[in-house]
Amino acid sequence: MKASAPASSANLGPGFDCLALAVELRCSVSVAPGDRWTVSPAGDDGFIVNAAKELHKEPLAISIDSEIPVGRGLGSSAAVIAALATAIGRLRNGEDDLEGVFEFTAAAEGHPDNAAAAVFGGLVLSGGGSPHRLAIHDSIRPIIAVPDETLPTREARAALPDSVSIGTATRTGSRLLRLAEGLRTGDTGLLETVGPDELHEPYRIALRPIIGELMAAARLAGAPFVAMSGAGPSVIALAGEDDVSAIRTAFEGVPATRVLTPRIASQGVR
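Request: output the structure for the sequence above.
Response:
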């Protein structure tokens, strides 16, 4: 039995731990009964097998084929868990339980944002209730810069302060509303007013300065909105079609970086 789930760019600046966008880079997982637990290709087998054992008692042969860069802030772990849980559900029951897959993936991840995008697709708001799909204008295109270096999520989270000021929280709320409305309407002028995040990005940029280099390059090229993708070090720009080429060229000008221009994934697991 087989299933796939998309990559996702979480946080998007002010949407820390509650907002994510699914993009069309996919992780496919196939499962079949086996005489022992196996994962192909070999890698972090313990993580995959432990997750599978929570869903299925008998041994499985698990095969993974992923387009998603690992350790770059593109939701690779959420995608593989969502696809795995969906494939096992299809093997056991012959049907999908998206809410159940989401809850399992979010628990495995420790936060719901990437899990929601991987399972439901599109632009998704999570936390404080069931995930909610937000509208995103057809004109919006993601351009993603993926550095060669990695930034483990644990390291990125450890860099964050335990609390922030009321002023930071207030400005972050305003930025999040501007971002959501700009993406809904395709108003790039409004997206430009979102500005740089101050809740989490400055602390993570200090860990990997290339993040700041990429963000500055995109802004100079005219990107209306730029943010870290998840915990980084990848950077995502959201722009209209006319700006894609210039932003891509700007990203390519930063050494040790590759650029991806996937479409937004309107469907999550499939």
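Residues 51 and 108 are 8 Å apart (CA to CA).
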